[in-house]
Write a structure and sequence with these properties.
This protein has 15 helices and 2 strands. A hairpin with a 5-residue loop joins strand 1 and strand 2. The chain binds a DNA duplex (10 and 10 nucleotides) through helix 2, helix 6, helix 8 and helix 13.
DNA sequence: TTCCCGCGTA
DNA sequence: TACGCGGGAA
């Protein structure tokens, strides 16, 4: 099978798989809207936390801030409060900043060009293209980590850097089916072509012999949900190493969360959502009662981020 | 334990 | 190019 034929087979297989798989996910609240602001809010939330959590918070957030204008004239601190529990509070500030930019520069309407979207705070290549495709029906390819993984494994059979991954994705978009295709490919990467224990034995691409990584021997050996995770890179069993490793969008290891600055940041912000935090309470609130210096250092970073402001008495509150 | 997610900054 | 971010989930 040549590359062109394999690409067409992959597109057809993934779309056919999605016609069945989509049913459950179509019930998610953000799948039934093409309103650009609602899409922007959904993508910002989904980029950082899981579907179940976003499902709970998303309707409440939009009920309070249904338009960019409503968000723009709300104090940043109130937007952070509505964000409480989602984490990554700087993204709430980014969304607030984006809303203000949309009002100031675009008359309150989310812009419909890649360049204008990328110029909004907190909006990068993924979010910008997701809005273009989902809200505006653009013929574009959205490359998130799931898509990057599928491209590296099934299409290229080797790691891809981002520019190449984007170009590869661009060539696959079926004309007139941009939204369906992008949703299908992201769901496919999330559900079948997972990072860990990919479901090669039930994969429609492998079944067609169209996977550049697994080749035509679908589920014959090695990487599969039935095996251990180590099987994915077990060369002794004849498996080529996972091409997704080190490919576009793959993030490296993160330091452990318990005991980290991030944990203390989260505790301080959540406390400030309820009431201003006095200097005397700061270390206890941060969870480091014996390390006052550390609590103050982390709090200063939060002020520098614009997530907290320091009052006259040194108390910390939301902006 | 280990992995995971897109963006901004350094 | 590498890291910080806020935890949740496997």
């Amino acid at each position: 099978m040549d590359d062109g034929a394999r690409a067409r087979t992959i597109v057809a297989s993934v779309l056919a798989w999605w016609q069945v798989a989509r049913v459950e996910r179509d019930r998610l609240p953000w799948r039934s809207t093409s309103d650009p602001w609602e899409v922007l809010v959904a993508e910002t939330m989904l980029a950082q936390t899981t579907v179940g959590r976003v499902s709970q918070r998303y309707p409440l957030f939009l009920a309070s801030l249904p338009t960019p204008g409503a968000c723009a004239r709300t104090p940043a601190g109130e937007v952070v409060r509505l964000w409480a529990g989602l984490g990554y509070y700087r993204r709430a500030l980014g969304l607030h900043g984006a809303a203000r930019a949309i009002v100031e520069r675009h008359g309150g309407e989310v812009p419909a060009t890649l360049g204008e979207l990328l110029a909004l705070p907190g909006v990068g290549p993924y979010t910008a293209r997701a809005v273009l495709v989902t809200a505006f029906g653009a013929q574009a390819a959205v490359v998130d980590t799931n898509v990057g993984r599928v491209l590296a494994r099934a299409v290229a059979g080797r790691p891809l850097r981002m520019p190449e991954a984007q170009r590869t994705a661009d060539t696959l978009v079926p004309p007139g089916r941009s939204r369906d295709w992008n949703l299908a490919l992201m769901d496919f990467g999330s559900i079948v072509c997972r990072s860990r224990r990919p479901s090669c034995s039930s994969c429609p691409v492998a079944r067609e012999g169209a996977c550049a990584w697994r080749g035509g021997a679908a589920g014959a050996a090695g990487a599969d949900e039935a095996g251990t995770s180590a099987a994915c890179s077990d060369m002794s069993r004849g498996d080529p190493a996972d091409p997704a490793a080190g490919s576009a969008g793959v993030t490296g290891r993160q330091s452990r969360f318990p005991g980290s600055d991030r944990e203390g940041r989260g505790r301080i912000v959540r406390a400030a959502c309820d009431a201003p935090v006095s200097p005397a309470d700061l270390a206890r609130v941060a969870g480091w009662p014996a390390d006052v210096d550390r609590a103050h250092r982390v709090a200063e970073a939060l002020v520098a981020d614009g997530l907290l402001v320091c009052g006259a008495g040194g108390e910390l509150r939301l902006p």
